[in-house]
Amino acid sequence: MGWLKKPLVLTVIIAIVVVAGGNWYIKQMTQEETVPIEEVKMRLESMYQGSVEQLTDADVEYQAEILRNGALYSATVDRKTGKVKTLELLKKAEPTVVVKSEPEKPIEKPANEPVEEPVTPNEKLPVIEKPASQPVSEKPIEKPRPQPVPAPIEKPKPQPQEKKQSVVLTEQQAIAIALGRLHAKVPVEVDDVDFVPTQQGGYYLVELDLDTDAELDEVVYQIHAISGKIMSESWDD
Q1: In this predicted model, which residue has the larger pLDDT, 84 or 32?
Q2: DSSP for 170-184?
Q3: Exposure of 84 by Cβ count < 10 A (0-12 exposed, 13-18 middle, 19+ buried)?
Q4: β-pair partners for 56
Q5: Which end of the chain is more exposed for a tag (fewer CB within 10 A), N or C?
Q6: Count of structural domains, the chain
Q7: Is the pLDDT reported for residue 79 higher than 80?
Q8: Rounded CA gap, 180 and 178, in Å?
Q9: CATH code of residue 181
């Protein structure tokens, strides 16, 4: 054991112990500062009003897939702060088809038929006497008189049909559609509403701000000005 007394060997051993202890300490501090994965799941479901379908733990961030109103989103969450770094739309919601049921037709009842009363053998039927035939006197046959030709009837000319004017939504209706799509439980402020005219009727750009601690707290909806259909949805910080 005499080799342990050499200064160079002792210095190497001490350096190894210090490095190993430092790595262990840094690892413990990193684990304490990380937001638990269950808390991240609860935050995402509460913030976006959807269900977290998949949540994986990466090196410095969480990867999540969120299902909201039939649409699938991909989110990246910081492990230390728990804030959303990116949010992308993976799959749009499929439109629902409503099938109207045909009303039942009422059952037609047969009309009331007259009921014939039976005739008893004791009752005598009345006898109807025919009038005596009288001689028919011959009358001269009159020739038909010529009928006047009716004047031609003028048909009314068809009036040109007026073109139907397309009805454009108001700004308030566009804002109501955007708020209905967002369906957030946090306070929401309408930041800006712009109308962009196009040959297809134009569209509205409705910008909403969410009162939340998340980085992505601003959403812009592109709404068709005639049909009210949401054409696009984009999030920003």
Answers
A1: 84
A2: PHHHHHHHHHHHH--
A3: buried
A4: 63
A5: N
A6: 2
A7: yes
A8: 5
A9: 3.10.450
Residue 156 placed within a domain: no
Per 3-state DSSP, the chain is made up of helix, strand and coil in percentages (nearest 5) of 25, 25, 50
pLDDT in tens, 164-203: 445 688 999 999 998 888 887 788 889 899 999 988 889 9
Q: Looking at residue 67, which CATH number applies to its domain? A: 3.10.450.40
Three-class DSSP category at 206:
strand
Distance in angstroms between the alpha carbons of the first and the last residue of the chain: 65
Q: What is the largest CA-CA distance in the chain?
A: 169
Question: What does pTM read for this prediction?
Answer: 0.35
- Give the position of tokens 């112990």: 17
Q: Considering the domain boundaries, does residue 1 fall inside one?
A: no
Sorted by sequence, the CB contacts under 8 Å of residue 44 that are 6+ apart come out as 50, 52, 55, 64, 66, 75, 77, 84
Domain end, chosen from 69, 91, 113, is at: 91
Domain final residue, candidates 91, 116, 135: 91
